[in-house]
Amino acid sequence: MSKTAKTISLAEQIRDTARTKKPVEAELKTDKRVLARITDGIYRQPASALRELISNAYDADATEVVILTDAPRFSAITVRDDGLGLSLDALQHLIEHIGGSAKRTKYGADLDVTAEDDPTRSKGGRQLIGKLGIGLFSVAQFTRHFLIITKTRGTKFRTVADITLGAVDEELEPLNSDESEDRDITKGHARIWVERATDIESQGTEVKLLDPLPRTRAELASFDLWARIDFEKETEGKALTREPVFHIGRMNRDRPDELISKPRLPWMEKDKPKARFEKLVAAVRGLAKTEKDLVDLDSDCDRYLQTLWTLALSAPLEYLESHPFDLAANSDLRFYQLENKTKGQAKRLQPKHGESLRKILGLKTPCLKRGDRFEVFMDGVQLFRPIVFMNQPKTQNAVKTPLLFAGHCREEFTGKPISLSGGPLEFEAYLLWTPKVLPTQHQGVMIRVGNASGAPFDRTFMGYQVSEQTRLRQITAEIFVREGLDGAINLDRESFNYAHPHYQFLVKWLHSALRQLTNRQKEVGSEVRSDRLAREGVKAHRKLERLVEKQLKDHGVEDLAEVVLLDPIRQSEAPDLRDQGVVALRKRFVLPESQAVRQTAKEQERAAFMERKAVAIAQILHAWGLLESLSFQDQEKLVHDILEVAAAEVEQ
After folding, report:
1. Helix extents (H) in 424-538
2. Are 275 and 282 in contact (CB under 8 A)?
3. Are strands 77-81 and 204-210 parallel, antiparallel or unpaired?
4. How are beta strands 444-449 and 425-433 bridged, if at all?
């Protein structure tokens, strides 16, 4: 390249390829630490990298994202959106500043990636969620070779960038090295050119991932799972690991085009994209009625469907049914307002018929312009946020009505400099208590910034230390951050700086909210139990129940399950009773066989008391979470065995 050519910007050189028909060659340069973090896997799962590409599309004001994975072969992956596209100047900035995103900076507006008056918003007004520099190169998780094909509206050309990433040298210093952190390194190459476009008004970006890495294909195809099952069959004579209930199909690892097992999916080929996702969610939740009490995606779905579900949870999408703030009051759901106090008390709301939490509390999340649409499709399935609030399964606890707690808070950190506080923090949140959270991956709290999340549900509830293990498994919570927290998000966008003031404030607020929920749920449980016992009027049962309550008090459990022992003539009622939330066990499989010759009055009294003991044992086992993972037959066998040992009269 001549001396004169060197002074010409990369954008101008790319533009000139329309005349020269020769691609521009460019080296990718960045801080060694940034590229090391990218190429060596800050995004450890395929879902993480796909999430970043979806986020970039959202920030580009796209209305639709289409992901094609060539499942179950996964020989090529494409992510296409109809967003604003990348201008040549924006592409130049991307190539020359990997990890140095122009979003949230004063340069964003100049490069047409942010609003003119707010660098934290897209040109269309959306709260930014992605990091253009890091996010786009997250595809290093998939491949070292990919294409970026992008076009802006009104231009006669589309731009193509053929990018190859190199591996980080092993001799580079570790990430905690004390040496210079800003030394640029060359670890990639790009060939860039423009092509004439037939539709001047079209816009958008397409990322084609070429030659996916073996580990990526193995992850999406669940090779490790199938290999484990095969090994167990060979060594043990049978598979100890259960095959996933739903999967995309199994390919021969040695012959990638050979299908060994046909897909087992809950939808039909003729189903429309939304119907497919609706059927997936319904089928996964429905496993609680046929397989076991709780549903675990890790065992019930293969890696591909888990990836699809994870994307649906993390992306800024609509809920499958309704946003929790838009739910209308009805007899199947109780509303409560959370107080912003350490020792606050949740207030029971009595809304008018059809009145929503949004209207009562003035909630604004997700704060989108009217008519703003954002949809994601993956291999013909339209994704929605798969969190369901209505028509919850009637559970085995005394309290069967879900309780929805909501609140909002703004903290100015008055008196503290922005350099220390990070500026104001504003958020809205809900906590949903329901006796059975389906699937188990929805247990916990998820933090959303800009209506998107990089991390899964945190089952520890940000380190909640109170012994409420049973109750914590019954809560789904989401915190929607409207302002702030950005500085507390780590580079991988999947973890947080726990020392950041914004994160610390959220911890205190959430733990107070959990205490408020606990107190109200206990009150409701006490009311329900009192009503039930008053109807039963059985003193012996109450005495035994008090004993069970005493045993479980230290465990933090105050809501006993409803247990019914069915006579043979009523066994057919078991599925319906379980669907209503009753621990329905068949009496003849639970009670030890009587050795009495005659059914005297005394023997009948003894049998009745044995039934009450069986109920007590089942309640204790349920409270300790020991029944949830068992089949209904195994639940009966466990109660029977314990009862038989407890009732045995051992001769000396």
Report:
1. 469-472, 501-536
2. no
3. antiparallel
4. unpaired
**Residue 115: Cβ-neighbour burial (10 angstroms; 0-12, 13-18, 19+):** middle
DSSP state, 385? B
66 lies in the same domain as 159: yes
Burial class of residue 199, CB neighbours in 10 A (0-12, 13-18, 19+): exposed
**Boundary of a domain, candidates 463, 497, 525:** 525
pLDDT one-digit tens code per residue, 279-336: 999 999 999 876 567 799 999 999 999 999 999 999 999 999 999 999 987 767 899 9
Tokens 């051992």: give the residue. Answer: 650
Residues in the chain: 652
Specify whether 453 is located in the same domain as 576: no
Q: Do residues 203 and 346 share a domain?
A: no
512 Cβ neighbours under 8 A, 6+ residues apart: 338, 339, 340, 341, 342, 343, 344
pLDDT beyond 70 at 499: yes
Helix H segments across 437-500? 469-472
Burial of 183 (0-12, 13-18, 19+ CB in 10 A): exposed
User: Whole domain around residue 556: which residue ranges?
Assistant: 537-647
- CA gap 447, 488 in Å, rounded: 12
Q: Does residue 586 share a domain with residue 512? A: no
pLDDT digits (tens, 9 = 90+) for 504-523: 999 999 999 999 999 999 88
Strand-strand pairing, 381-382 and 403-411 = unpaired
Which residues pair with residue 145 across a beta bridge? 164, 210
| Whether 111 contacts 87, CB under 8 Å | yes
pLDDT exceeds cutoff 50 at 535: yes
Q: What is the pLDDT of residue 1?
A: 42
| Least-confidence region, from 243-257, 277-291, 306-320, 390-404 | 390-404
